[in-house]
TrEMBL record:
This is Type II secretion system protein H. The keyword Membrane applies. Residues 37-118 form the General secretion pathway GspH domain. InterPro entries: Pilin-like, T2SS_GspH.
Length: 129
């Protein structure tokens, strides 16, 4: 193989690598979005369990203009870079297991997932939009 052939091969490999990079980056952000939604669900389930076990209502509320949310223990879960939260208000769990609050929408990588609670039962559900 001549030097010219090696350079052409290297240029083609580099070009193909740059074409695949945006898709790889989008796939990574999509994975981070999924993990963020799962973490939110776990935090909601923990808040519901805490409300039932302590006999006191528990709340999660958005903070930082959609960059995170405060958990019942006062800690804040910051969202990863590229992920945002759209929430009109808090999600609240009552001692009887019921809940109130508007759906929260988690967005990133051109995708959105709504996370909400069923008022009567406190069940948590998600829906990709």
């Amino acid at each position: 193989m001549s030097l010219l052939e090696a350079l052409v091969t290297l240029a083609i490999v580099a070009l193909l690598g740059t074409l695949g990079y945006p898709r790889l980056e989008r796939a990574q952000t999509s994975l981070i979005l999924r993990e963020t939604v799962e973490s939110l669900q776990v935090d909601l389930e923990s808040a519901r369990a805490a409300a039932i076990s302590t006999g006191r209502r528990t709340d999660l509320h958005p903070v930082g203009g959609g960059r995170g949310y405060a958990r019942p223990d006062g800690s804040v879960r910051a969202l990863p870079e590229g992920i945002v939260l759209a929430a009109a208000g808090e999600m609240r769990f009552h001692p009887d297991g019921s809940a109130s609050g508007t759906p929260w929408v988690v967005a990133g990588a051109g995708r959105t997932v709504a996370v909400a609670v069923e008022a009567a039962t406190g069940s948590i559900w998600k829906q990709a939009q």
